[in-house]
Input
Amino acid sequence: MMKKFWIIIGCLTMIAVLAGCDKTRRSPGRASMPDMSYSRAYETYSSTENLKENGINYTARPVEGTIARGDMASYENKNDSTGYARSAVVKNPLDFSTIDMKEAERLYLVNCAICHGSKLDGNGPLWNGGDGPYPAAPKNLLADDMKAMTEGTMFHSLTYGKNLMGSYASQLSTLQRWEVIAYIKMKQGGTATTTTTVVADTTAAAIK
Amino acid sequence: MIPCKLIGKRLFLLLLTFFVSTSINNVSAADIAAGKALFMSKCASCHQVLKPGTGPALAGIEDRHTWADHNELLKWINNPAAYLAKDAYTQGLLAQYKSMMTAFPDITLVDVDNIVAYINDAAVAKAPPPGDTNAGAPKSNSNAIIFGVISLILAIIALILMQVNSNLKKMSDDAEGISRPEPVPFYKNKVYITMFALLFFAFAGYQFSKAAVGLGRQTNYEPVQPIFYSHKVHAGINQISCLYCHGSAWESKHAAIPSVNVCMNCHKAIGEYVKGPTLYDKEGNEINGTAEIAKLYKYAGFDPNNPNDWDPSKAKPIEWIKIHNLPDHVYFNHSQHIRAGNVQCQSCHGEITGMDEVKQVSELSMGWCINCHRETKVDFNYTDSTGNKFYSIYEKFHNDIKNHKMDSVRVEHIGGLECQKCHY
Output
């Protein structure tokens, strides 16, 4: 009698073990050498909140006036109505002939097409003719008012945001923003007035 | 049976309301459709029907100011700057919303009538229905239980059959008059005990070494994140590119976690979760998407009722829990893999576009890395515009391919198995 009892107990334990395997794993488990697995150094995304208490000066911002290698000087107009008005005369400092349009297209498709559509028709997946989750219609970049908008104003809006559109300065560098603007202008049927400011010629070539 | 009189009365009332409503509104479906087309192309960038966006919500517009008179409304729409100069109400609007309305000089009085007709229609149609019920239940994974029950039943049947077998044998022996010695029960049989012990040690040893190797590996790790962010909704249903949020994977070692302002690029406008499927966490609890977006607003310091007052610099970072962790002594670079190597995100991270909660799909062990480096073929072409010019330096491999000595170059051939590539 005892024998059968133990066999049944054994079977039940097996079932419990098997059923237990299906659980969602909410903890990372143990590490054999925790100080190797989890870095003791300050890595990306380490909290920097208590650095000041330890006498370490940390601002997380680049030193003012410095330019990242391969990027270009930052945009000088301020985010206000005068800056917006002034932006109309700002020209794209990149030389149209040297812009890597494939890269510009990639940047547009990743960052802009989600709302403004891969065809620039203002009908990206988030709007989807009013059926998408986004409640406001994105601008149709091929519409006449957008064709009339100067590249400088576009750049200003891309840098600081406009209406419901947020600022893309954190996602795209100054150079990348100008590349995207050049791509949009090209798709709009081209401001073929190739600007010959040579500020960023070398950097544009270097980034590739 | 329902009295006919009551039905007649109801029918009469219905007809009455129908006639009254049509005579008051006097709008046709065509007007509303024309209004909708105009609204979508001209107004929808800044105005929504029910909620304030860049400009005020337009539902109930005829009850405000003097807008019931469409001629006044037309003057405002055609030339807001001129109208504003003489009108305190619109000056107040400008102070509240901080952006000047765009002029639409092409809009005519008929257009205004149609647009208002659409707004009135949409305001009724889009108002949230009372007592919204949610259908559908979470899928519970009951496979394990079914398999367990089946194996239990099979085990019991096997036991009974063994018992029957030994009893029958004993009976036949008794009938034939053969007297055998009382059989040794199996748990005292030395052969059985030895076999069992050997099996036990092999099994336990395998399990023990497996557990020891698995220390620090986090396959299937799926932590509860501070906000229930569904990759399925964002990257799957809404087709947002992985690089929209994790753009630095293209340019740097890390596939960075987006800062709050990147979330707010869209969520400044999207304040509620209504159009997607009902969300459930792994425990089967229903998730209220709108409440999760409200959590984001709290981190961002964003007040949805006052969208224009938001100051992004006051936002607090969201402390997402890191899932994929490599030890300190391993170097891994995202851009090297996805940009130079053309590896898809999904190759290592699994079907992210189908995951509500992200879990670690790959083992991220050294064996796993090395295996991929052994199997992955390198796109060795460097001549056309899509190719990588770097590969031109491997003269021998190019010659070998030309002479059919090797059919393809894999990552291991160009140093993918060198220790110092990842450990230095």
